[in-house]
Amino acid sequence: MDKFLIKGPCKVKGTVNISGSKNASLPILAATILFDEPVEIKNLPNVKDIDTMLALIKSLGFGVKINKKKNSVLIKKTKNINTFASYSLVKTMRAGILVLGPLVSKFKKAKTSLPGGCLIGARPINYHLNALKKLGMNYRIEKGYVHAFVKSKLNGSCITFPKISVGATENAILAATLANGKTTLKNCAIEPEIKKDLTNFLNKAGARIRWIGKRTVEINGVKKLKKISYSVMGDRIECGTFCVAAAISQGNLKIKGFDPKLINTELNLLKKVGAKIKIDQNLISIIGPKKIKNIKFIKTKEYDGFPTDLQAQFMTLLCKATGKSIISESIFENRFMHVAELRRLGAKIIIKKNNAIIFGGTNFQGAELMSSDLRASVALVLATIVANGKSVINRIYHLDRGYEKIEKKLRSIGVNIKRLS
Ligand code: EPZ
User: Fold this and answer.
1) Is ligand 1 within 6 A of the CB of residue 177?
2) How many CB atoms neighbour CB 70 within 10 A?
């Protein structure tokens, strides 16, 4: 298993390019199931979760031609489509469940593995199943699989999600795109990966999706989608992670390839801790402060609130602040796994229910560490960049799921990092 060896402390300096968004690519790739015509997707990040989604689409019988050098893929429907999404593929990546809506909508049936639990929380799929049922999908759960079918076609409906869910909103939009008539979805997730990218992609291919309120979308079903070539948006969380790298290390970074307007909340928090930030179109210039100020209270929330996917990174930053900060996690029940590892580097953090109380002033000291999930792992990278001495981070396959060329990018901005295979 690969590990990272990081020697700190380092200051990040220079320019970094943001890769395509993992969490925008995944539903867009699932959407290709809806097409009869070929679809080209560009700016795909070269990360493990995308490989898994492409393997899943290939296993359904689609022609999948990957061009790793160009970060693109060409997906073509073939005559031999099956509708079986296996446990071996879905268990490693929960977003595999996003093929359920498109398969039932396009091919009238699907047998899709239940994704199962995950370290950060139970993550059930009841909102996905209930929304698809409202559109006319029949299903039963047997031996770990969702067996789903629809007699003729899915029919538009009005659905209000009981709680905001990124994946359930995506699955319902995907299923409604080719359904009969009008679907209205209320209390939707409005992450830019959905409201901007998935919507743009589908509409450019001929779908009729219109956002008619902050969290309400109206989808008028169309008969078919047309051939399209589409470039995925930049990765919001990778961008936020590099912003934190600059802020924590008194760095001076130019971050290219992401629209700064989409991370207003995060940039405002970074200004609060003392970072100097200048924004331009698709460019963020950030200088980290000499003294990091604490933030009394932050709570993770659905977009356009503070994202749970940046909670671990901000916690690492606040370990070095002057004074006490509190971060409250409201999206997942178990997303503080980085805390025990940060403590091994010297952090002083107490967990009380879903609140982490962070006592600032930590001078991290290098140590050997263990990655747990994607964002927890990158938080450890951030801490070890500024830690004194040598650190080893084990099980970095978690990072490879979602950060493209992370060590190459970090090395290019001055981090002393090496992958040990
Ligand atoms: C997406 O996961 C992201 N994944 C996650 O990114 C992100 O953390 C999460 O949204 C929240 O922003 C992708 O986009 C591929 P949810 P998703 O449905 O869709 C509960 C990363 O590091 N819930 O919005 O699974 C659920 O348990 C990751 O890149 C139900 O109870 O998240 C959670 O508490 C990890 N029933 C909350 O809702 C359901 O049917 C929000 O989950 C669905 C969700």
Assistant:
1) no
2) 11
Tell me which residue has its CA closest to atom 44 in ligand 1: 165
Give the strand pairing for 72-76 and 109-113.
unpaired
Q: Is 26 in the pocket of ligand 1 (CB under 6 A)?
A: yes
Gap between the terminal Cα atoms of the chain: 6
Q: Which amino acid is at 206?
A: G
Q: Is pLDDT above 70 for 52? A: yes
Calculate the CA 252 to chain-centre distance. 26
- Distance (Å, whole) CA 244 – CA 316: 9
Between the CA of 123 and the centroid of ligand 1 the distance, in Å, is: 7
- Over residues 106-157, the pLDDT tens digits come to 999 999 999 866 788 778 999 999 999 999 999 999 999 999 999 999 999 9
314 CB within 6 A, ligand 1: no
Condensed to tens digits (0 to 9), the pLDDT of residues 173-201 reads 999 999 999 999 999 999 999 999 999 99
Side-chain-facing half-sphere of 409: CA atoms under 13 Å: 19
Q: What is the DSSP string of 280-345?
A: ETTEEEEE--SSPBP-SEEEB-STTSB-GGGHHHHHHHHHTSBSEEEEE--S-TT--THHHHHHHT
Is residue 158 part of the annotated active site? The answer reads: no
Does this model's pTM top 0.85?
yes
Cβ(371)–Cβ(398) below 8 Å: yes
Shortest-distance atom of ligand 1 to CA 332: 34
Structural domains in the chain, CATH included, are: 3-19+234-420 (3.65.10.10), 22-231 (3.65.10.10)
Residues belonging to the chain:
421
Residue 190 corresponds to which tokens in the numbers above? 């409005």
Index of the ligand 1 atom closest to the CA of residue 375: 22
